[in-house]
Design brief:
Number of helices: 3
Structural class: alpha+beta
Number of strands: 2
Helix content: 25-40%
Shape: flat
Strand order of the largest sheet: 1-2
Length: about 90
């Protein structure tokens, strides 16, 4: 019996919204206890988790969001740009 939860069940591997699904940028590799070393220290992970960004929304309000939310806003803006470019050049 493994010390770890089921990989596919835990990560959703093979599903659209799971690991390596649509727009997923994650990767994975084996981690061997006692041999492998973590890529990031706990302090660096905490630093990444607590990073925030401030932006001005379309109503002129200053908003502060975490890194994940900022990346989602950026992806939304990129999608809108692609939409309007397709619309302009398809005529």
């Amino acid at each position: 019996m493994s010390n770890y939860p089921d990989f596919i069940e835990t990560t959703g591997y093979g599903l659209v919204d799971g690991l390596h699904g649509v727009n997923c940028r994650h990767s994975y590799s084996p981690f061997y206890i006692g041999i492998s070393t973590p890529r990031f220290t706990p302090q660096k992970l905490q630093e990444y988790a607590s990073k925030t960004y401030t932006y001005t929304n379309k109503d002129g309000e200053q908003k502060t969001v975490d890194a994940f939310k900022a990346s989602q806003i950026q992806r939304g803006l990129e999608g809108k740009i692609r939409y309007w470019k397709r619309r302009k050049f398809s005529r």
